[in-house]
Amino acid sequence: MNPCKIIDLPKISDVRGNLTFIESMHHIPFKIERVYYLYDVPGDEERGGHAHKNLEQLIIAISGSFDITVDDGIESNTYSLRRPYYGLYIPSFIWRTMENFSTSSAALVLASKPYDESDYYRNYEDFIKSIKEK
Ligand code: TYD
Q1: What is the mean pLDDT of residues 86-100?
Q2: 3-state SS class at 10
Q3: Which residues pair with 123 in a beta bridge?
Q4: Is-catalytic flag, 50?
Q5: Does the beta carbon of 36 lie inside 6 Å of ligand 1?
Q6: Interatomic CA distance for residues 13 and 100, integer angstroms
Q7: pTM score
């Protein structure tokens, strides 16, 4: 079963516009220890192409839209993110790729740990091998 899920974030709307907020351990199942964002991504470029041993993430199309394909080694699913009040929760051991970034789009990523290159699988075959060994 695909362990990724779309989280419907709170949205406060009034005549002044919309406001969305996210609290650790309340709206998302991890403590936020890092925030990063992808922007100015050319429409024909692909980002991601890796999996993590421990990291959990929430990815939000804070502006514009893009597609994320998630693969747990058994099945893959593609999500089109296009609203700032939806986040895609991605636990560890999920290979993800991001593509089809629209003009002026931005991907906000909330992460459960500081950056650590040793937490990455950057080779798909290594990722699949480690899933089989689990
Ligand atoms: P990369 O993992 O290739 O980005 P993406 O997930 O979009 O494919 O990261 C690009 C570079 O940025 C790479 O050298 C690692 C570095 N980086 C950091 O230094 N800190 C971070 O928090 C992140 C996400 C990446």
Answers
A1: 98
A2: coil
A3: none
A4: yes
A5: yes
A6: 29
A7: 0.97
Q: What are phi and psi of 99, to 5 degrees?
A: -150, 180
Instruction: For 47-91, write each residue's pLDDT tens digit.
Output: 999 999 999 999 999 999 999 999 999 999 999 999 999 999 999
DSSP codes of every residue in 52-90 = ESS--EEEEEEES-EEEEEE-SS-EEEEEE--TTEEEEE
Pairing of strands 66-71, 120-121: unpaired
Q: How far is the CA of 18 from the centre of ligand 1 (A)?
A: 30
How does residue 103 score in pLDDT terms, banded at 50, 70 and 90?
A: very high
Residue with the nearest Cα to atom 6 of ligand 1? 48
Task: Say yes or no: CB of residue 47 within 6 Å of ligand 1.
Answer: yes
